[in-house]
Amino acid sequence: MTLRVQAAPESHYGWIAAKADLALSPGFRALEALDHEGAIVGMVGYDGWTKSAVSMHVALEHPMALRRLIRPAFGIAFYEFGKEVVVANVLSTNERSLRLVQKLGFREVYRGKDWIDRGVDLVLHEMRRRECRWLGEKN
């Protein structure tokens, strides 16, 4: 599968909002992977901006999309946006996303017990620029 990676236009943000159950905030930005027909097969979104950190959200239709998006996604967060920390907030009931963030190298830094609902925690993960193996030579 050949995929094209590009900045997602605002008109495409609804795709990740629906897939990742996000409430889009002002300043939301995204990177998308498109198949040869122009269909979105993956997207990485950014929000929750602070001076040194940004929150990252990932939604995928095809596993190949992650392979194409991962290096540019972290490169943009750390180099273009100039952040030191990327944050990923995951519901404790979302086992697939928990496995993904751990596989990518995020580490759990806090668990808000019952923050979402009884028995549903919000698990906060972070990745620091110096820990990111996806940056290659610039790290």
Tell me what you see in this structure.
- The chain is of the alpha+beta class and 139 residues long.
- The chain has a single domain, classed as Aminopeptidase (3-Layer(aba) Sandwich).
- Helices cover 26% and strands 38% of the residues.
- The protein is built from 3 helices and 7 strands; from the N terminus they run E-H-E-E-E-H-E-H-E-E.
- Strands 1-2-3-4-5-7-6 form a 7-stranded mixed β-sheet, with helices on both faces.
- The protein starts with a strand and ends in an 11-residue tail after the last strand.
Using brief descriptors, characterize the structure shown:
139 residues; alpha+beta; Aminopeptidase; seven-stranded mixed beta sheet; 3 helices; 26% helix
What is the number of domains? 1
> How are the strands of the biggest sheet laid out side by side?
1-2-3-4-5-7-6
Please give the CATH class. Answer: Alpha Beta
State Rg.
15 Å
Instruction: State the separation between the terminal residues, measured CA to CA.
Output: 29 Å
Note poorly predicted spans: none
CATH H-tier superfamily: Gcn5-related N-acetyltransferase (GNAT)
Mean pLDDT: 94
